[in-house]
Amino acid sequence: MGTFSREQVEGMIRSGAITYETMSWAEGQTAWRPLREIIGAPVPPPLLSASHTPVSRKIHPVAAYFLTAGRYRRGIWFLANISNVCGLGLLAAPVADNHSDIASVWLAMIGCFWIYLTTVTAGKRLHDMNISAWFSLAVFLPLAPLFLLILSGTKGPNKYGPEP
Question: What confidence score (pLDDT) does residue 113 get?
Fold first, then answer.
């Protein structure tokens, strides 16, 4: 093909035009050899040692409470909803009799947060039944929560995680 500088050869390797196995010749050699023997191939990265510890992908338990990742069994789902109502009720109680604008905004924020938590817990319950959390908005339909309480979940692991 011609005479090339080292930079040109490395550029052709990066572009895929040639490889380190391409037969090459350089001045002073008696035979054609693979390019890796002439310019040297890059050293591959070392293998991970046995002492390497992978980074944990577990979600912190407090953060997990607010995300739909994971699965809830019937009893845990029921208790989570009861604790949401009780906890948010405690936050709403001090301003429940107040008719000011600030109290109305505070109660609206608590109501929105309750809707969010109810949707999240329904998503985890649906994950236990191997159903997408996108269907969790159905929990606001009449009798839908009853089905989440009655129907059993998937035995063993499913596409949403291990059995809780």
Answer: 95
